[in-house]
Structure formats: C-alpha cells, structure tokens
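To close the chapter, one final illustration. This time we ask the reader to focus less on the individual chains and more on the assembly as a whole: which components sit near each other, and how the overall shape emerges from the parts.
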Amino acid sequence: MVDFELSPDIAAQREQLHMLAENAMRPIAREYDEREHEKPWDFINMMWQLSKASDIGPGKEGKQAGKQKPVDSNRNLRTVIAVEELSWGDAGLYLSIPGPGLGGAAVQAVGTPEQKERFLSRFKGDKPVWSAMAITEPGAGSDSAAIQATAVRDGDHWVLNGTKIFCTSGLMAGDPKNSNGFIVVWATVDRSAGRAGIKSFIVDAGTPGMTVAKCEDKLGIRASDTATLIFEDCRIPFDNILGSPEVPKTSEGFKGVMATFDATRPIVAASALGVGRAALDFVREELKKQGVEIRYGAAPRKLTAIERDFMDMETQLQAARLLTWRAAWMMDNGQKNNLEASMAKAKAGLVVTQVTQKAVEMLGPLGYSRQLLVEKWMRDAKINDIFEGTQQINMMIIARRILGYTSKELS
Amino acid sequence: MVDFELSPDIAAQREQLHMLAENAMRPIAREYDEREHEKPWDFINMMWQLSKASDIGPGKEGKQAGKQKPVDSNRNLRTVIAVEELSWGDAGLYLSIPGPGLGGAAVQAVGTPEQKERFLSRFKGDKPVWSAMAITEPGAGSDSAAIQATAVRDGDHWVLNGTKIFCTSGLMAGDPKNSNGFIVVWATVDRSAGRAGIKSFIVDAGTPGMTVAKCEDKLGIRASDTATLIFEDCRIPFDNILGSPEVPKTSEGFKGVMATFDATRPIVAASALGVGRAALDFVREELKKQGVEIRYGAAPRKLTAIERDFMDMETQLQAARLLTWRAAWMMDNGQKNNLEASMAKAKAGLVVTQVTQKAVEMLGPLGYSRQLLVEKWMRDAKINDIFEGTQQINMMIIARRILGYTSKELS
Amino acid sequence: MINFALDDEQKLIRETVIGFARDEIRPHAREADEKCTVPASLLRRGWELGLVQSMIPEEYGGFGTEHSALTGAVVAEELAYGDLAIATHLLAPRLLTVPLVELGSTELKSRLLPAFCGDTFEPGSAAVVEPRFDFDPSAPATTLRREGDDYVVSGAKCFVPLGSQAKQLLVLAGLTNGDGSVRPQAIVVARDTPGLRVGAREQNMGVKALETTTLDLDACRVPRDQVLAVGDRAAMARLANLWRVGLSAMAVGVARAAYDYAREYAKERRAFGQAIGQKQAIAFMLAEMAMEVDAMRLLVWEAAWKLDRHEDATREAYLAKRYTADVTLRIADNALQVLGGHGYIRDHLVELFLRNARGFATLEGLAIA
Amino acid sequence: MINFALDDEQKLIRETVIGFARDEIRPHAREADEKCTVPASLLRRGWELGLVQSMIPEEYGGFGTEHSALTGAVVAEELAYGDLAIATHLLAPRLLTVPLVELGSTELKSRLLPAFCGDTFEPGSAAVVEPRFDFDPSAPATTLRREGDDYVVSGAKCFVPLGSQAKQLLVLAGLTNGDGSVRPQAIVVARDTPGLRVGAREQNMGVKALETTTLDLDACRVPRDQVLAVGDRAAMARLANLWRVGLSAMAVGVARAAYDYAREYAKERRAFGQAIGQKQAIAFMLAEMAMEVDAMRLLVWEAAWKLDRHEDATREAYLAKRYTADVTLRIADNALQVLGGHGYIRDHLVELFLRNARGFATLEGLAIA
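The assembled structure is written out below.
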C-alpha cells in the first residue's frame, strides 16, 4: 500500500538531527570552509559520543548501509533521511563525521564474520574512528576496471603497490595519528583478468608502506579531507582480502564489489538533497521577506519568473528525493536497486547542482557574497554530481540496464 | 569591419519576399497542410514565373548555393535571407517551390561545365522543373558511408540498383508527369572501398528502372513530398556521374560530395529561422493584445515568467540567425565553413523546435487548436532538427572538427 | 510508513488495464488518430472493465468500491500508455461521476448515476477550459449567479470532451464573492438545458480521436441542487487537484509510451556498425527518459496519496502537473529524435506521442484521478 | 553590408591582448585568486598596453583613438580569457574614463583625465550595484537631489572595484522625477568627498583577486558639473548598455577559457581505452560549448556594433547579457564535469572559471565596453 509518510520513529530522528544540524553544524560551517585542512575536533568528538550514546546519527549509517537483509527493516531509509538532515547542516562537516563510511560499508557488505568483528568493532570504542575506500587512481578516473594498483600474494601476506587519489577521509582513516582506522583498497591480483582480477583489501592505519601523500585543495566540502594514498610494498595479512582470493572466469566478483555502490549512491543522493534543501529553504525565507509569494495553483500566465523558478527548484528536489527514498526502500525490502540507485544519484547530483547555482542568482549581489552560506552550498553541491560515479557514469549504468547492454557493448 | 546591416539590395529583396510570403503563402498554408499529397500548382507556377522574371526568389537559390567563388559576392547570404522569409510564409510550401534544390546544388558544386549546361539549363524553361537529392536508404539513416545502392559500369552506361527514402521533392523531380527534372543519387561503385567508393549520379526523370514508389505521410511540411525511389537496373549514361569515376585510396572524394552540405546546411538553418520567427511574431502580437509588454532592461527580479520566456525565445532565434548568416557569409568570402555550417544547422534546428513548442504553450487553448497556424509551425519546425543531418550528426561533425578526430576516432 | 508498492487490488487492476492497453488500445491508436474517432468496439470492451462503474455506490447500481485517486492515477497512466485520446474518451464519464459521487446530493445522485451503471458506454463530460489566452481555472470567466431558488450560468467553454454526446456535463463557472473576487464553482448542467448550445467539433493538433467541442451557455438556469458543494472552497480545490493528478498520470503514460518506443527502436536500428542504442548520445537520452518517467510517476503518486488522505494537495498536484507537462514533452521530442527521419513519418507512433504530449501544459479538466 | 571580420586595427589589438592574456595573465590566475590580489608587475605591464589611455583625447594626454564598443568587447573577451579578476582590475579605470570622455564637460575632463595618461596604473571605478536583493540598475535606491547649485547623493553601494584605491568614482544614483518615478543618473564623486566612506573589502565566491568594497554615501555634496548629462535618458541608457556589453564580452572570454581547458583535457585524458573526448557524451558537450561560445560572441558584437552606430541598443545589450550569463555558467559547469573529480580540485582552473562564471547574472557595471 503506497505511503509517503515517514514512520514516527524516523520522523522523530529527523527532528533530532535537524536540531543538531542547525545548532552544531551551521554555526561552524563557514569557519571550516575558510580554514581548509583544519579539523572540527569538537564537533567530531561530539558526534562520536552522540553516535555511541543513541541509536541515531551517522555513526550507524555506514554500519548499516549495504545490508541486504538488515535487522532494522528501515535501515537504508533511515540512513538517507539522516544524511539529508546532516547535509542540510553542512555537507563538508557531514563528510568529516567519524564512522565506518564507505570502507565500513564494504566490510559490512562482503566481509567475513571474522573481518566484521576485527574491523567494525572499532567503531564501538571511545575514540573517533574512520574508515575509507580507495578506488580512484591518477590514470584511471571512473574506469574502475583499469585499476593499476597491484596486490601480490607473498605467503600469508598480500603486498600492495600503487597510488590512490580522491580518497574521502583518507587522512583520518589512514593516519594513525587521527584514528585507529582502516582503508579498503581496490587492487588487481591479475591484470590480465581485467575486472575479474580486481579485489578489495583492508589496510590498517599506520601499516608500513602506506603513506598519506597529500590532501587536495577543493572547490567545496573543505571540512572533509580528500587524500592521496601511496602504497609501496605495503604488506597486509592474507585474511585482509574482502571476498574470495580466487580469480573467477567471469567478472561476477567485480560486480559484487560494485554492488557496494547500490547502497552508497542513495546516500550520496541524500547528501545532495540536504544541500539543495538548505538553499531552497533559505531562498524561500528570503522571498517571503521580500514579499514574493509562491502561488501554487495560479494560472501559468500569471506567474512571475522568480516564482516559477522557485517552483521548478522545489519540484526537481522533490523528484530527486522520491527517487532516493525509493532506492533506499527497495534495499530495505531486499530488492535489487542497482538501476534505481543510479537514477537517484544521477538525478540528485544534477538537481542540486542546478538548484544551488540558481539560488545564488536569485539572491542577487548577496547570493554571490561569502557573507551568506548560499555560495558555499553551490560549491559543496557540485561534488555530488561527481563522486561515487559522475553524472555520466550513472547515466551509463542506467542505459546499460534499460538496454540490456554489457559494459563492453556500451561504454 | 564588422557590420550587421543588410545591403540595400538584399534588404529590398527581403521586403519583396516578405510580401510574397504574406500574400501568396500564408493564405494557403493551412489548406495544403490538411490536403496532404496535393500540390499547390497555382502557387508553384506563380513562383516559377516569378523566379524567371526577376532575379529574386527561390529559383535562384539552388543555382547559387554551393558556389565557392560566386559571381554575386553575397549569393549565399542572399539565399539564407530569402529562405527565411519564404519559410516565414510556410516551410512546406517553400520546400515545394520548383528549382534546382539540393540536386542542382550538387551539380553546381561538383558538376562539369557540360553537366551544368545539360542539367541546369532546364531551370530556364517555361514549365516548372525540380531536381532532388537521393541519399538516405531504409537501412542506413544518417550513416552515408553505409550506402547499399550500387552503380555498376556497363560500357558507356552505369546501372543503378537500390532503394532511396526521404527524398525531398523526389516525386516532382523524378516523375516526368510533374517535371522534366532529375535526381542526384548516391551509390557505391565499390562497396569494399567504403566512403571512397561512394559517388553521385544524375538520373533523368522518367529513366526506365527508376520508380517513385511512395510519398510519406508526415508530421509536418506536408505541402512538400518526401518520396521513396526504387532503382531496378536503371541505366544512365556514363557521363551522368558527378566527379571522377575513379575510386581514390583516400575518402577525399567522399569529403567532396559531403562538401555540398556546407552550402545547404545554412539554407536549412535559414528555413528553421523563418518558421521560428513566424511563431515569435505571432506570439508578440498576441501578447501585445493581452497587454503583456516585454520590458527590455528590467531588473531580472521584476520579469514575469511569460515575459522572460519570450525574451529567451527571441535571443535563441537571433543567436541561431547570426550563426547562419556567418556560415553563409564565409562561403561568400571563399572561406571553408564546414564547422560553422554545422553549428548553424544544429543550433537553428534545436532552437526552432523549442521556440515553436513553447509558442503553442504560451497561447493557451488556442495554441493547441488548428484554428491557428502555431501548432502547424511546431510540426513543420521539427524537420529542421532532423534532415540534412540530425542534431546529433551535426554535433558529431562539430566535435570531430574541434577535437581533430576522424570519423573513425569519433562516431 | 514509507511504501512504494501498490496493494494487491491495485496490482490486479493495473495488470488488467496493461493487457487492455497493449492488446486493444495500442493497435487502434494510429487509425483512431487519422480517422478522428474511437471505434465503438473499443468503447464496449473498455466499458466492460468497469472503470466508471466501480466507484459508484451500490445503491445507484455501481460496484461501490471506494474512490482512490492513486488507483485512478495508475489506471490513467496505463490507458494513456495505450493511447491518450482513447484513454480520455473511455474515462470521460468519470469527469461527471466522480464529482457527483463525492459532492452530489442523494437526490441528484439517484437521478444521474444509474445511467452510468448500465451495460453500454454512457458518455459524460466536464466543461472546464475556456477559449481564451489567459484562461485561469481558479477564476473562470464563465459566470454563475443566484436567481431565486436557481442559479444561472453564462459563458463559453472549449475542449469539452464528448460535448455532443454527453447528456449531463459538469461545468466550471465563477461565482463572484462579496468582495468582487471570483471563486470556481462546479455545477451539473443537462445538455438539453435551454440556452446551452454545443458548438462544432474542435480540430486540434493532438488527441484527435477524442471528440471535443465548444460549449455556449447563455443564461442557463440550473436548480440549486445541481450546484455542487456551494461555498466549499476545499471541495473545489480538491476537484481541481483530482483533474491535475488525472492529467499528470496520463502524461506519465504518454512519456512512457514514447520512451519504450524509442528504446526498442534504438536496440533494433543499426548505424555505423552498431545498434544506435550503443551510442552514448542516444543511450543517455534514453537513460534520462527512464529516470524521468519514474520521477514523474512518484510525484503523481505522492499527490494522489495526499488526495486519498483528504489533505490539501494543491502544491503537490499543481507542481506534478507542471513537471509532467514539461518533461513529457521533452521525452516525446527526444523519442522522435531517436528515430530521426523515421520519427517524422506517420508510419511510427512517436510523432503522435509528441502531438499529444504538447497538450498537457494547456489542457485542464480533461481527465480525473 | 554584412561583415563578420574585424578590421586590421582591431585584429592587431586583439593579437596583442591575446599574447598578453596567454603569457602574462593566465600564469598568474590561480595565485591571484588564492592570494586575492593582482600582482603589481601585471598592472604595470597591462598599463603599458594603453587600453585605458587609448581613447582619451590627445588634449588630455591620451592617444585620442575614437572609442569603439566593439573594440572594447574584443579586448574584454581576450583579457577575461586570461582571467576575469585580473581583466576587471586592469580595465577598471575605464569605468570612469569612458563615461567622462563621452559625457563630461571640458572643464571636468581636463581636471580628471590627465591622471589616467601617466606612466603608471591609475585606479578608477564605478559604484553601480547596491547590496539589496531586489537591486534594479534602472531605478537605483541611492538618491540624488538638487540642492542649490550642487547635488547631494546618499545611499549604499557594493561590488565597487578598487573601492579603496580609486580617487574618483562614477556613482549611479536615482534622480526622482516630478511624477515620483526614479531615473538613473551617473555622477562623478571624489573619494575624499565628505560623507563618502569606503567600506571593508568584500569576500565573494569568485573574482576574488579584484578588490571590491562597499561604499556609503551620506549626503555627499557634488558640484553640478560632476553630474553627467543631466536629464539625458539616452545617454544613461547608452551607459548601461556599455556596461552590459563589457560584462557580456568578459563572459564570452570566461566561457571560452573553460571550453578550451576542457577540450584539451578531453584529448589528453584516457579512460576505457580511449581519450574521453572520443566518448559522445563528452564530445557533444564540447561541441555545444564551441557552438555557444561563437553564438554568444556574435550577440555581443551585434550589440556593440549598434552602440558604435549610436543607436539604442538596449534590447540587444540586455538580451546578450542575460544569454551570456546563463550560457557561460552552463559551459563552466560542463567543463568542470568533463574533468570529473579533477575539476573539483584547485589544481585545475575550471572550478575558478565556474566561480567566476556564476557572477555574471548578478554583477552590473563591473566592466565597460
């Protein structure tokens, strides 16, 4: 039976997170945009305590995302709702929150019980812990199959070599000074096998041979670090491989690894929605102050340009939101959502880019000024059109699905 | 020295053609949209007399289009201005006007003096004459290189076999009952040679073995016939080949044939502009009646939605017009305009599609009704986004040019 | 509790309608458009689905299933997927019966509803749109004024479906308030009311198989009980939203039809040595269509869901209608582009989808959820 | 007589500026943005190009070449191609000198123009924008009223380029007509005028290397001859159009910079075994950029050409500004998309182009043709 109303507990959680976003994130949003590469430790520690104390908050997301049959039957939906609120507060700060993140999600999705115990238990400790996912390489953008990093077996170890870039929270997860975290690294055990040869490996923070080379200066989401990781003869235990070490004939295994994205893309979409809604809410308030009313139901010919712009922004955001909720809901109900997850990500990434860009324009000279957060939201928003698969990559995935093409037939 | 003012003689010609469009085309536009497959003979004969009597009018275009170093140094510009006016009157009727059209343009561009004398002289006769170009095949759409029609040499004849579709004015040019016209047919003399093997041949109306199989029922431009031509052992004189019969190593020759489009694409763009301007002029008048004024210079925040829509339509059309004039001007000045011709065609085709669709909406219930011509303009407009290379084909040509890719490297 | 799944009954109805649209409607779409008429056989078979009778209470001869805007949206999308003109014709009676069931007096219902529970298709209609550039459904120019115990309606309408066939029509008129402002008011008018004149059949760019006419009302006198929910603004707002959701759902159907047609063509059609669907320019167009069809449906469902909870859905329904009208047009236009020259030819249905799609931004009250 | 070719003198100037933008400006673009300042060396070298002095009549020490909006547009595009902030800084003095030369009294010109004909960069400025949501250049909230032989200006401005450096500023104020309507009026105000207070340096998303400040005018008294072309609506309209064309031309420069950057990247960068430029999704984006850059330039040139004929170019200039602002933003955004993750990093200039591009819809009077 179709229903668009949030369950009372999720609605309540949203309320709590909204207050947190408003009181703990908004006040420091500008500061950590200007002070790039500095970490909001007070906020980080508060969030860590919070996520341990209550069942709400981002600490849980990663742990929960990716489960096909979760205990909490609304886990993925709960997560996207939570992420939208936190990103409404500030997208950069949201991304800096400690927790399993993408790395943990991967362990959760394909890890053995032993691995889950060994790595996920850390997120119950007293000190903030991060984990991260390292996929992209300098040479190979979105083309995961072209990964150059290698993992060579040496007795009961794997030896990793290669360079990874654009690793979100790589600094916090990979540098033991920051946390007892870990990085999930994609590498090939057999380059000749193409996609089938690609495996993911768990590397503990501080493992000799892994160094955090640099953190990028970015357009936005500056409170979150985007690290470059270098692996030089980095030795890790054999058991740190996620999934089977075998190289199958087919690239099924790779598909398995890629499946993590079905859980994480709706989360990125949700983060986009939060940024977009922040801008929309602000514009709505400003228009109200200026006496510009939004007349729903008015004849098209009677609308003002700015009024119609606002309606378009609002509709686009809601369309993206419903696609996002659906993708999460499907996963909560054990349905494959690869197509729907990409739809949510592609739509939300594009919409938030356009909505925030328009918001800056609608506010006139003030919109362009750093006195307000609107210009920051525009800078933060754009990342959602890029990471976890660019707009183009997600359109490609959708196209392959609807046309029934393999990655060979459509690339 | 940059100048956007038309020379007095071209401006005068435009005036004349505008009156002709208003008085001779508008009154019968609806009639020949409803009476599909019937020909406006009175109009056709009038245009024929007119084009012979004066130096203006469409009779000249084709003869003139394509010349690299024309006698009239403004020939191509004059043509696009003329075509815009006539298409403002009615795009379907414009396309039904007798004259050399695309076929003649090809003879003009690459024909021998003997061929020009033999074929182009017909356009000086008393009875209306058409010529047409037959390229597209049922199997091959925009992929000219994949042409299946064959031309086999047999002594001092060529024997043509194959089927051609979407041949504009094919019925008028190919059926001797209608005129002593001819069809320029693309066929391959050596399929193994790919593009290099493709040549164009002139086939006289009524040549045994060439039959006009059918005329399409279309969305718009119904006053103009779009014919299917079937060639069965159709024998034509050896001299009827355009250009050299040799099959070069490179596909230079094919490029030569394709070069015709550099002259014709701006003409299609100009026709698009005429349809778009017809809609824009009508909407402007209607808005004025409704007391909706277009306040150029007003603060963005003070615009109404419909006012801004109108400005957008107006600007888009003017942008397409300037690209079109530039492409024609370059050819008049002996400059290569392959890139600019495709830009004009791609932009004008897209803009007129959007402008006319918007115009229907802006006029409310009346816009959707066949009482007015606006809905017809929307149907007519769309062909400009398709023929002479679809939007996508033209974007491809632009992309190859700017990126320096061959058709192999980017397809 | 968020849920994106239809209930079993809705799934069942949808399956039935999908089959009907595929096997009965779609094969007639082209001919119906060219001949500007819906074959009687289709009306008969369509009537048998009980889409009109279902929500009429049993005491008037109907099946008495509760009215659901969401179910209505599902049905509208699937029928319109088959063909918009045929769908609007089949569902036209609901333009009268739905408001009647919701807002009519017992007396009025027992007088008018039984006619719609018979064995054969019974035409019904609503006259909403007005032949004016600045038509505004929230303030119709057609006037309604009290005169003794009766009301008197005067004005001109257009786009009236089955105008020459419907014996009873719902007419949207403007009732002038004390402060001079106008508020919309729906009334039931019998075709044989003195002063009512059905005009000539309209000729439009699309939806050609559906008969629509103009309607002139010259001081038509209607008894008070034919004025539905007098002064009940909420009821009139709900009615307008039911119209919006009905048309929006049909827009989704047309968009999906265009998308499916283009997708299948792109898989078959080869150029440059590949299926054209393997070209990113085409593939991404199709991907966007797929994404937007889903997005549109969810917006429509949300508005319908709100109507079924009897909450004010003006914002959702209004925004959904604007969005579906714009996006459906773009999808139909892109679908034609995928077919290229073949799309411009009436051998294929995409040009029909485009002509129909262009109507949604203008049309009002041509369907009801 | 239609002609799309620049004359030889314009070609020469363009060549010079192209070289300067490529060799001097572009290499400093990133550092200037990060440090929020334009290196003095660059100002010195830029000044030597004579872009400010050229159109100042010889009697005041200039080169006395006739002012041409078209030439101004060509120069503005090429400098902005190098970097928008540096370009606006280099050309800021023209915001004062161009209106002075065109509209100033002989006395005023001989008093102010010689300062701009020296050997070193002389800052000049115009205060047009106001810090309000509904700022309207055609009706500024800054007031101007007659008081005896003088005029008195009061109001608040923002986005004033070189606000703390310019000794003289052109200020746009609103003169109230008899009927209460307001019309824009340009006046020259010296920075040391009592009541004029230069505010703090502004922090904006883009154009960061250009110093812009707020400006408070508290009953600033200016002699009558500093009010330019009093009551001459045409002159003020022309001034507004010169601003529009100036900024539009710079938008074309920024768009072209983003397009070129993305195109070169797409040729180098490989993925899935090809240069990404060989992918239709990327290739078509680049093709659209190329097409629109040309289209925008032609619209700007047409408006400039009309200004050079001293005809009313309001429609052309206004539409060109709206179009270039929208399209340049889209092009910069797509350029960033072509670079993907790398575009989001400040190692590359596209994110800078995007931040700068977003300014055009809002900014007014920051450049003049």
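Residues 67 and 175 of chain C are 28 Å apart (CA to CA). The longest strand of chain C covers residues 150-161. With these observations in hand, you are ready for the problems at the end of the chapter.
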